[in-house]
Amino acid sequence: MPDYDYDLFVIGAGSGGVRAARLTALGGKKVAIAEEYRVGGTCVVRGCVPKKFMVMASEVSHAIEIAEGYGWSFEGTKFDWPTFLEAKDVEIARLSGIYAANLGKAGVDLIHGRAVLRDAHTVEIIGKGQTVTAEKILVATGGRPWRPESLPGIEHAITSEEAFHLPELPKRILIAGGGYIAVEFAGIFAGLGVETTLIYRGPNILRGFDDDVRAHLAGEIEKRGIKVILGAQHQAIEKTDTGLVNVLENGMRIETDVVMFATGRVPHVKDLGLDAAGVKIDADGAICVDAFSKTSAENIWAIGDVTDRMNLTPVAIREAVAFHETVYRNNPTHFDYEAVATAVFSQPSVGVVGLSESEARHSCPGEVDVYVTRFRPMKYAFTGSDERMLMKLVVDATSQKVVGVHIVGPEAPEMIQLAAIAVKAGLTKAQWDATCAVHPTMAEELVTLKEKQSSDTNAG
């Protein structure tokens, strides 16, 4: 049997790669992991975690408005962008350090550098004159922002990655995109006092989400001062003495200080050497894998966003565990992608688990019952705000199982985590109804919805 330097070599030290490396090393195998940037990957360094800090910072302005309705008064309040950036960067460095320390405690060799496959068992660390071999290789390089490089003036635009490090807070920003990253950053900048415009080429934001959620959120974010322009996209970006002029295909010209593209992410496979190792990718650049994350190469696996299956950090971690169970514990395991909860940290926020109404009508064998409520959260009672919360339950009328839960409003992500347990367990509407409400709360609406909005025959 060939003598390899490592039993497992992991390319990419994000959440998925780190979990797989640690579990395998703790199981007694010799493991190395390579990271070209910083340990922690997209989520910790340039994604979920710093973005959530930005969301929390930006929500303070809305909290002050609410507090004033309750009798509080504030004088001289201001937000200092450099102070926030410093605090954010210190915390990110701390978290990245914890990830690195945990790898060391597990006995994983951490290699700082860009790893490239030279063949199915050989990895070169570029610029370091280092080549290592491994019996098995796991690719967990994640994704990167995509932007239209052929667009005239695109060099003047930024992506979400640069948004975390802007030297100063702009007065005006235009964000192109309609997905969760776009609407989240629109809320962030608007909450920090930036004049914010969101443009999207489609008929409504959050494509793929329930139609009621999309329509409700579009209206609510405009109440927070965000200008939303739908059915529009860039023709060019022109740099002038006073800013950047966004020339749209509909004839509009909008001048801002910063232009940010949040138009999707693509698997990070560029110059990775996949061809040399016999690893196939699909038409969109994602690594092709089977249900157990195995690639077309006998000894190479891939997990996380680089496979473009379900691009969520907790999913990548579960895929890592499944990989370890399958490969090193003789327990073939694959992740169950059904009823995975997700959150959009927009303002107001969104929490979703299970099927949209449209999906349910196409997949359920019979009728679908829909329960919807819209109401003003109690916390806005003294503010005069007309902001509304949306809650929606989608029920398979035949089995009476709740197959979808959709929430838009304060604390939606926290609520959907718990609702996901019930949906994953296949609980029925009667079991939801039998659960006693906690009063007064917003979440009590989930167990007190009685009147059906509709119950139509599946048209699909």
Defining traits:
single chain, 460 residues, alpha/beta, globular
Structural overview:
With 460 residues, the chain is of the alpha/beta class. Helix content is 30%, strand content 24%. It is built from twelve helices and 22 strands. It has helices spanning 15-26, 41-46, 48-69, 81-106, 160-163, 180-191, 211-223, 274-277, 313-328, 357-363, 412-424, 429-433, and strands at 6-11, 31-35, 109-112, 115-119, 122-125, 130-139, 143-145, 172-176, 195-200, 227-230, 234-239, 244-248, 253-256, 258-261, 265-267, 300-302, 342-344, 350-354, 368-375, 389-396, 402-408, 454-456. The strands form five sheets. Strands 1, 2, 3, 4, 5, 6 and 16 form a seven-stranded mixed sheet that branches. A six-stranded antiparallel sheet has the order 17-18-21-20-19-22, sandwiched between helices. Helix 1 packs parallel to helix 9 (313-328) and helix 3 crosses helix 4 (81-106). It is globular.
